[in-house]
């Protein structure tokens, strides 16, 4: 799900300006229709991720013991899910995001019942649930031309309820989709 054309410089860390570290939470929760993942739409603001759809998450703070702790803290702050309710399952691949100079570690966690989401009105415009079985529905995988002068890229994205989920979030969802596909195949043996 990486945007094209692939320009390796876009994915390399800048040695002059070391990346900031961040953590995001890929939270799995059940409801009457199966397992879901809460994505969040960020409000419009003057910044690199304005109006985008992402996982709950943010930068490593002094109060955090590690990036998993960051993901747990940010999930509580942004969408109101208490850290005590989240069981950490593991991590996806670390990812460098050039637009914001972040190196992000996605943590996968699970809660045993559907949480009552309480979005932070400053950081979150709304919570966007995505069914985990939609990850491998290729009808929601699309490509969009995006302009970032002087560049034009063709970015793959997930169409989730009419929202464009692209970039790092789409790459993380794509990795999760592959893990789900492998798990489903292992059950068929």
Features:
11 strands, three-stranded antiparallel β-sheet, alpha+beta, eight-stranded mixed β-sheet, globular, 189 residues, Nucleoside Triphosphate Pyrophosphohydrolase
Q: Please report the total strand number as a whole number.
A: 11
CATH homologous superfamily label? Nucleoside Triphosphate Pyrophosphohydrolase
Oligomer: single chain
CATH architecture descriptor:
Alpha-Beta Complex
Number of helices: 2
Number of domain units: 1
Question: How does this model look, in words?
Answer:
By secondary structure, this protein is an alpha+beta fold. It has one domain: Nucleoside Triphosphate Pyrophosphohydrolase. 19% of the residues lie in helices and 37% in strands. The chain contains 2 helices and 11 strands, in the order E-E-E-E-H-E-E-E-E-E-E-E-H. The strands form 2 sheets. Strands 1, 2, 3, 4, 5, 6, 7 and 8 form an 8-stranded mixed beta sheet that branches. The mean pLDDT is 90.
